[in-house]
Amino acid sequence: MFTNDKLSTDKLAAWNIGVAMVALALGGSMGLFQKLEHAGTNLYNQLNFIGINSYYQGLTLHAVLNALVWTTFFIVGFFTFAIPRSLGRPLKYPQIQIAAFGLMMAGLIMAAIPILMGLANVLYTFYPPMKASPFFYIGLVLVVVGSWVAGYGYYFTYGAWRKENAGQRTPFIALAAIITMVMWQIATLGVAIELLWLVIPWSFGLVAGTDPQLARTFFWFFGHPLVYFWLLPAYISWYAMLPKQAGGKLFSEPLARLVFWLFLVLSIPVGLHHQYVDPGISAGWKVMHAILTYSLFLPSMLTAFTVVASLENAGRARGGTGLLGWVRKLPWGDPSYASQNLAMILFAFGGISGLTNASYNLNLAVHNTIWVPGHFHLTLGSAVTLTFIGISYWLVPKLSGKQLFSRTLGLWQAWTWFIGMLLMSNGLHILGLNFGVPRRSALGFAPYAQEAWNPLLIEALIGGIILTISGLLFYVNIVGTLVSKKKLTAPIEMPVAEALNPEPAPAFLDTWRPWLALTIALIIIAYGPILFDLISNLNMTAPPITIR
Amino acid sequence: MMHIDRSERVFFIASAVLLVVFALAIGISGFVYGIQVPQPFAKVNPVTIADPEKSDFPTFALPAAERIRELAPGRYEVYVLAQMWKFSPGSVNYGEPSIKIPAGSQVTFYFTSRDVQHGLKIVSADGGRHTNVNMMILPGEISRLTATFDEPGTYHMICHEYCGAAHQTMYGVLEVVNQ
User: Is the pLDDT of residue A198 over 50?
Assistant: First the structure.
């Protein structure tokens, strides 16, 4: 198949992951300044040398770099590495992957310049009629289009594989990765329409006004599946790689496939659960999206079961006995394993607070409070990011051909992330729920701040400091690996867990048409009437307001 | 069909039952206790909303003090204009008086924005008491929600959607006073 398991496209994977890591380093470090500001210490003057002057400018950078750049570039790099290996054939058109990287980089630079110049202090949601430099929006479009192009490269490769392997089941990792990209392709249509129709022409002054309610609706058409675009690659690692790393097998492979199909079908028609308190959308549609969001909870629960059962299989294979004795036998000394298992534990808490957010009128208690960042730092900030970090602990040595600089440092990193995130998200959740403290606000200057917030803000700050230390440990380890002279002594192969039950999955779990038809049908049912209503009552009256 | 382990099937059914229980709780809170979310009310033009001649919702063009209306004893309507970075009426940091209503009143809030997106959550100024008033305030839309204030005390109307450089200063004061 491949000599020494090296592919010409691995360099591209490495470049994507490299850009992702630089983004996380810069974006992540902004987080500490936010927590310091909340606790009353404004240090943004110290950041003037990189162009950052204010809390909101730093927050825009934090969110764009962490939520969009770190994730999208890492995922494209990870898939560029994993899809050809899973299929056992090289990518069909590597040039497509080069073009994709070029587009994403061009977009990143085009969006980063206005942010650093203070011309795009609009946060990553850029809700109109707040107006940023048009180049910020065009840059975002290019990043999204670049990720589409990366997807096309995978589809061509997958199509070629299907021709060469008629009648065979698609290997799980490749199938799951391609489902993820297809879901992303459909979901990003929402933000593409928002930008190209409602935002970019208006930001150039070609149209006088725009419709903020409609723009929000298109944004959240994309905004919630975005969450699953981040999460599904982590699920791929949990289902199909981590059991192998721990010495076990995948508990129920067909259900794992079903879960990915369900995420394709259900990720998109749920966006209104971010808009429960919007004025322009009727309660009936909000309730419908609430129910669909709840059904999205089921594949998550299946994942919890299957992944834990697979790890139990590994723990028992390692000699663990008793009800929970197998847990101690898992390879906790391996930083790649430890960080991903800790990520799962944090995700359990994030799932609970997420269910609260999704609960229609219960959301009134927490909408737009600092509870929400408390929630998504457990999902995006932990389940996803700490898993990607865990993947990096084998993938960076693999791609660089060097031994990991320090396993001990890696373990310290994983545990400090876990503890730091518990403290920070605990503080934020309580502040939001009990005191209604708003999210995305420079609280250090808020005239309505209450004394009672202080202990919790300090808890969150301590969490933030521990997380910053964790981040530093990660980068010391990665840079240490890259500059080290210690070559790998044994080759690293992509871990691929075997199915516990060797019987192949039923054919309907390897067939696209019915699942795609269901996906599109549900989107039309859940979004068709509300979009028709908003567009037929279009209210293009909000003129642009430039934010400094 | 595919093989599903018995324990996994039980887990799946238990998860589904849990969700049904949660959904029932939401339904009961919404339709028995009346805890509702904002619904479409009216679309307006944010540029002319406060202009007495051109406003398509002239109540918003009245002076701030006249936008707090007592409909009947214990029933109030409040029409609030949100703009960078104040709520009118209610923004005490811009020299406006706070909104005062007697304890036990039922208040219907109407909010709209003159510029960018804002948000509103009403919280008690010293922790403790909670309200369910939480809504987005968009230019071009009127957000409406009704709440009853039984406990006297000071409440803050906090803007919870980022609205520019001084977003963190945007709030208003609502006082629920003993009769």
Answer: yes
B139 vs A438: CB contact, 8 Å cut-off?
Answer: no
Q: Choose among A327, A307, A424, A321: nearest CA to A370.
A: A424
Q: Is the domain of B29 the same as that of B48? A: no
Q: Is B30 found in the same domain as B46? A: no
State pLDDT tens for residues A425-462. Answer: 999 999 999 999 999 999 999 999 999 999 999 999 99
In chain A, where are the structural domains located?
Answer: 1-168
d(CA A57, CA B165) in angstroms, rounded, equals 9
Residue-by-residue DSSP string for A40-68: T---GGGGGGGT--SHHHHHHHHHIIIII
Domain range spanning residue B149? 39-177
The dihedral built from the CA positions of residue A91, A93, A98 and A100, taken in this order, carries a sign that is: negative
The pTM assigned to this predicted structure is 0.96
| Same domain for B105 and B58 | yes
Does the pLDDT of residue A251 top 70, yes or no?
yes
Same domain, B45 and B102: yes
Residues of A belonging to the active site: 224, 228, 375-377, 439-440
State how far the Cα of A47 lies from the Cα of A57, in Å rounded to an integer.
Answer: 11
Q: Which residues pair with B136 in a beta bridge?
A: B119
Domains: count for chain B: 2
B19 and B95 share one domain:
no
CB A204 within 8 A of CB A528: no
User: Same domain, yes or no, for B27 and B44?
Assistant: no
pLDDT in tens, A106-125: 999 999 999 999 999 999 99
Q: What is the CATH number of the domain that holds B82?
A: 2.60.40.420
Instruction: Say if residue B44 is in the same domain as residue B128.
Output: yes
- Chain A residues 149-188 with CB within 8 Å of chain B: none
Whether residue A46 lies within 8 A of chain B, CB to CB, comes out as no
Residue A124 near chain B (CB below 8 Å): no
Collapsing DSSP to helix, strand or coil, A533 comes out as helix
**Residue A14 structure tokens:** 């490495």
Give the closest residue to A373 by CA, choosing from A418, A429, A420.
A429
B144 in the same domain as B86: yes
* Cβ contact, residue pair A294, B23, below 8 Å: yes
Residues in chain A: 548
